[in-house]
């Protein structure tokens, strides 16, 4: 009889303990889900549209191979990338110059203000990226899938890279080299636009761990940029809050023309280039 009582007592204790464990598990899971949901909630100050001028530097990190403006709209969960021709003509200090010359002669701050006037778009911040920094970013996000509309082939430092048309999975090194190679070609080429779209789509849809956030901050600190470290944290929060973002490219209308023996791109701008795409239902 005493043995049966002890057995019943053990069963009761085990049952109570099991209930407590299950209850705590449910509470912890609920709390974790709440934390994840809260991490996707942004303060109002981060919900405004932000336009960033991205300057891609050459191997020597002195000249710009290409420029693009990235417009991040958290409210609509959309990211637009406009590839800006580096030969775009401006008049600076009573001289005709391309945007590439402006960056080389005057620096990123002047380039930012001149690009704003040329394209009639407000640019909030700029950041300079080179091959090494892009490779480090992709090391954090993981391999990037790019859907090339045509095959891409090139060589770099004796190594050949060949990608077929369609989906290609690029590791950090091959993606960085491909983007920089395509940046040297004509602006707004379809393959480069697909690279840009894939890059920002990966950033917007990745789930970042705390250590990855710190790695991004370290990368930002190594770039030439007017983004402060506390603002970099904001951008990480913005990208983390976006889920399956719609990433698309914008083509800047215009034409190429020789002026005084130099080839320039003459943009044809009617209103805000990003506002136009929003009005078109993008």
Brief rundown of the structure:
The chain is an alpha+beta fold.
Number of strands: 13
| Mean of residue pLDDT values | 80
Q: Could you say which structural class the secondary elements and strand pairing correspond to?
A: alpha+beta
The value of Rg in angstroms is 25 Å
What does this structure look like?
With 282 residues, the chain is an alpha+beta fold. Helices cover 46% and strands 27% of the residues. The protein has 9 helices and 13 strands. It has helices spanning 2-39, 99-106, 108-119, 131-141, 172-183, 190-205, 210-222, 229-241, 273-279; strands at residues 50-57, 64-73, 78-84, 89-92, 95-98, 125-129, 144-148, 152-156, 159-163, 166-170, 246-250, 254-259, 262-267. The chain has a 5-stranded mixed beta sheet, sandwiched between helices. The protein has a two-stranded antiparallel ribbon with strand order 4-5. Helix 4 (131-141) crosses helix 5, helix 4 (131-141) packs antiparallel against helix 7 (210-222) and helix 7 crosses helix 8 (229-241). The radius of gyration is 25 Å and the shape is globular. The N and C termini lie far apart (77 Å). 32% of the residues are buried. Residues 9-39 have low confidence and may be disordered.
